[in-house]
Amino acid sequence: MEESKVSLLEIDALTVEYRTDDAIVHAVNDLDLRLDKGETRGLVGETGAGKTTLALSVLRLLPERVGHIAGGSIRYEGRELLQMPEAEMLALRGKRISMIFQDPMTSLNPTHTVGDQILEVLNLHFPEMTKQQKEAKVDEMMTLVGIPPSRKTDFPHQFSGGMKQRIVIAMALVAEPELLLADEPTTALDVTIQAQILELIRNLKNQFHTAVLLITHDLGVVAEFCDTVSVVYAGRVVEYGTVEAVFEKKNNHPYTAGLFGCIPDLKDDQPRLHPIAGRMSDPRVVHEGCCFCDRCDHAMERCKTVAPAMHVHKGHGIACHLFENREDF
Amino acid sequence: MFKRKKKSLSEYSMGELVMFRFRKNKLAMFGVFLLAAVFLAVLLAPVLSSYDNVVQMHVKDRFTSPNGSYIFGTDEFGRDLFARVLYGGRISLLASFAIIGIALVMGALIGGAAGYFGGRVDSVLMRVVDMLMAVPSTLLAMAIITALGNGVWKLVVALAVSQIARFSRIVRSAVLTLRNVEFIEAAQCYGCSSLRIIVKHILPNGIGPIIVSATLNLGQTILSISSMGYLGLGVASPTPEWGTIISENKANIQAYPYLGLIPGICIALTVMAVNFIGDGLRDAFDPRTKN
Amino acid sequence: MSAPMVETINLKKYFKTGSGMLHAVEDVNLKIEKGKTLGVVGESGCGKSTLGRTILRLQPATDGQVLYEGEDVLKYKKKDMKKLHLNMQMVFQDPFSSLDPRMSIHNLIAEPIEVCDIFKTKKEINEHVVRIMEMCGLPANLANLYPHELDGGFRQRVGLARAMAVSPKFIVCDEPVSALDVSIQAQILNLLMDLQDERQLSYMFITHDLCVVKHISNEIMVMYMGQTVEYAKTAELFAHPLHPYTQALLEAVPTPDLSRRNRERNTLKGEVSNPINPAPGCRFKPRCRFADKECDGECPLKEVSPGHLVACCKCG
Predict the structure, then answer these.
(1) Across the interface, do C255 and A244 touch by the CB < 8 Å criterion?
(2) For the domain C6-100+168-310, what is the CATH code?
(3) Distance, CA of C266 to CA of A192 (rounded, Å)
(4) Is residue B9 one of the residues assigned to a domain?
């Protein structure tokens, strides 16, 4: 199984805390995640589930002084990132691992032309390239993301939201990284533009054989775009597996099942939605048992005290006591 | 979170809640106490000392350091500094508060109208303000006072006018950032009048920077009153006023530091008290501040 | 048949911009019956929010009529405006910026009641606030808190409670669930539908989310660059989307449904431009794969089957 080979990205028992004056916020708790070369994994969860924190931890870009990695390991091609000297980390960021942020409006510098901003990545990571080579690469990249290279002397405000996100993608992929962390890349965009951007990421990823960790709150995006999925709740992975296994909707973690129940269906009519009771658990509280048990319809006495282990069957993992000793999911 | 006895919190009006939060702010309450003490002393001046002492020269007692009979000592003409500071404070405090008050109200009206109504109202008002701003404020005040004639109240008007432009700008930008926020639209949705929207929604939300600049300007204003006096406008010697006291003793401060220190401390204490109160008010208007 | 609850006739809203007239809302005709919901769908900049605000007179209309139970609210004088405020309310998109951060939850909900003079005494107002809060699923102990102390779901309930405080009959919901997490979104949608059933409310539900709009609406109007491109009963629209734009929207929406996973995708090319001084003819033409010369001419809304209107010269 997976243990036999080294994955591109391996996260084990990662625990991240934000320490503020009043409290410790447990953003990520004991989280495991694997990502193979070329794989597209969806990381789904609601606001405050710790998705963005996870991505920032991988790049070691957590807010200084406040964010602390309290335990666990993040290995990239078998090398521990958490112990890596900052100089090596700098060489990795943007070249081997890149990130796309949610808001294309704020992730570009308004005072530089878009061409210069793409060029900057090359200047940083490929000092050996000649000026002509770099310019040619910028043109090629812009063509790839569907923006005529003639517009590279334009400034970000001259582009629409979707176009800006295309430029952000060009910046992220110009160094042909092996891993792309995409944090809600289409949330700020309209549906038809979202479809364009997702298609663009899909094509480029196939071309460059990039692995993608797609962070999103939208199960629909995962279903259409990803190979595998990890569902996070309160900083933990509660379910993972191939998209086929998870979206079959037969055997799911109660939280995943709850999420499915919240989304109105485009095909069938349902008179009422079935929201998940209660609200997101307070990230300042440490759970002894299952983090979801307050909101779960199937909660048992045991759920309050014993944290469920990840029960895995054919690569489909569910962290719930209901799936203990079951071989049929 | 809030815990209250008897009356439930929801029965309090917004103003009461602001006062409630203000009273819990220790530093602000200290400021209130300090300012009250200064005002009380100044108001009680006739009880503490007679006005005759302000101008009476005790030539033999020139430059007496603070002692039993002259609590704050005497100046180069042998005038009682204690009496001069007390009676001088009346003018300093009254004039500076009046100046800030007038400038603030006018600035709020002009800036508020410009920011809220926008369009042509904004353009016209702001061009007027620009014209005021184009002239250095001291020069403007001098021009106004020369036109109006000398006198304390004319000085107040002159200095107030010279500050209106600054307050209008601050208020306008505070209003502009709030103008298009959805809760203003929501208020229009249930029929809030423009006045109610400005008073109940925009002002409480935009008051922070306005209060801060008002309190910061107060000290500056006390000093500008004295620099006007130095130029022979407004308050002229021998009528005392804190800034004037310092400037008339300029030559002797090195030898007799108390002559500058005592009125200086008075100004500093007043400004500090007002700053504490200002910060307290700013925080009291914002329920997000921890308490 | 009696007059519908809300109706617009050739409603227009233009904005003057530096580069010309922006036709934000162009000749919109809609009808909302009592107790029904009209979903208004479109992408950002299609004029759907402007339409809602123009109906409520938050922005002055350029031309046309807005009828509330047959009365033109655009003709209301200042003293009549109270009628409008009592009958027509709005719920906003952003639960963060739509609540005054300096007011407690109680005061937020009480303010419309005070402004509209519904109750005279403080006691009556307080009792009414308690009733409204309960109706909107807000625990009474939240009354003393401030918006920043609540999460998005509760804030949006407060926004709804504030709109409900004057017992309106018609509510414009401007993307009320877009900023919320799915689990909270479902709670708010259920609440909206329960309130509608209880009080025979009419909604105009503005959204870009097709799944949501299908769930809550009886009829749907699809807008593109200020114009209505398709208008039909919900089931009819989803079963037979006729306008190429509606089809593209339906195709683009990602659903958590494996059967759609490997469908052939006809991703819509290009982006929406601004309807500034628009040329006559179909505004969707530059992005449409069926477009040809014929589309340069007028393409008015046509009724292709009973109650199903489309503005496309290639359909029907």
Answers:
(1) no
(2) 3.40.50.300
(3) 10
(4) no
User: Are C34 and C47 in contact, with CB atoms under 8 Å apart?
Assistant: no
Per-residue pLDDT band for C67 (boundaries 50, 70, 90) equals very high
Mean pLDDT of C34-43: 94
The β-bridge partners of A42 are A214, A229
Q: Which of C100, C115, C178, C206 to mutate to test the interface with B (most CBs of B within 10 A)?
A: C100
Residue C316 pLDDT > 70, yes or no? Answer: no
Q: Do C254 and A194 touch (CB under 8 A)?
A: yes
- The shortest CB-CB distance from C90 to any of B14, B17, B189 is to B189
Beta bridge partners of B80: B74
B40 within some domain: yes
Q: Band the pLDDT of B198: cuts 50, 70, 90.
A: confident
Residue B154 within a domain: yes
Residue B2: its pLDDT value, please? 43
pTM of the model: 0.85
Identity of residue C210: L
- Name the residue in chain C with its Cα closest to that of B180: C97
Residue of A nearest to C154 (CA): A279
Which residues on chain B are in Cβ contact (under 8 Å) with C81? Answer: 191
Answer yes or no: is B239 within a domain. Answer: yes
* pLDDT score recorded for residue C298: 83
- Report the pLDDT value the prediction gives residue B128, as an integer from 0 to 100: 92
- For residue B182, the chain C residues in CB contact (below 8 A) are 92-94, 97-98
Q: What is the ipTM of this complex?
A: 0.86
Asked if B8 and C143 come within 8 Å (Cβ–Cβ), the reply is yes
CATH number of the domain that B123 lies in? 1.10.3720.10
Chain B to chain C, count of Cβ pairs less than 8 Å apart? 91
Domains identified in chain B, total number: 1
Question: Across the interface, which of C181, C267, C271 has its CB nearest the CB of A199?
Answer: C267
Range of the domain at B146: 14-289
Could you give the CA distance from residue A2 to residue B278 in angstroms, rounded to a whole number?
A: 64
Instruction: List, for residues B252-287, the tens digit of each pLDDT value.
Output: 888 888 888 998 899 889 988 998 998 888 888 887
Nearest C-alpha of chain C: how many angstroms from B163?
29
CA separation for the pair A164, A113 (Å, rounded): 12
